[in-house]
Structure formats: C-alpha cells, structure tokens
Design a protein that fits this description.
Blueprint (H helix, E strand, L loop, with lengths): L13 E2 L2 E2 L3 H22 L1 H25 L2 H12 L14
Antiparallel strand pairs: 1-2
Helix pairs in contact: 1-2
Amino acid sequence: MRCRVYRNLDRPFTLLGIKGRYIPVAGIGLVGIIVTALIIGGLLGTFAGLASAVALIVGGYLALTEIQQKFGEKALSRRMAGMRLPRFILVRSKVWSR
C-alpha cells in the first residue's frame, strides 16, 4: 500500500524566518516599536519617526533571530517560566549521563 508523506508536517510554523513560539514575542515587540516610533515622530518630526521605526524593526528582527539561534523553541518557554519564579527557587536543567 502506498502512503503519501508530506514533508512539511513535522516542521514548525514559520513566518519570515521566525519560528512558531517566537511569533507572539515578535508581535509584542512590533507593537512596542510602533508606539516608540509614534512618540519619536510626534516629538521630532515625521522623518525622524520613520527612520527610527525602520532602524528599530531591523534591529528587533536581527535580535530575535539571534535569540532564536541561542534558545530552542521549547527552551524559550522554560526560560520565561523560570523568570516568573521567585529568586529563592533555583532552576537547574537535568543533565542525563550514562
């Protein structure tokens, strides 16, 4: 019996090179960048707001891809959960050895 195998089923969802669990982080960052650019544009002028928006978007994208390389998809969830814990609770990853 022949079975058709789809290669993209096992791959995570990506949008412009950003993996699935990082997309909400990118959305929150984009909203923050837009608000910052609007404030700068209101204070200094339209061109300064547009220039700062472009610079912040490019910088944010590069920073997010760097974080994506450093932490895996599940490591981001563990890291964010560990940051919510009180300081006196220590979190150490289990190292499995034979």
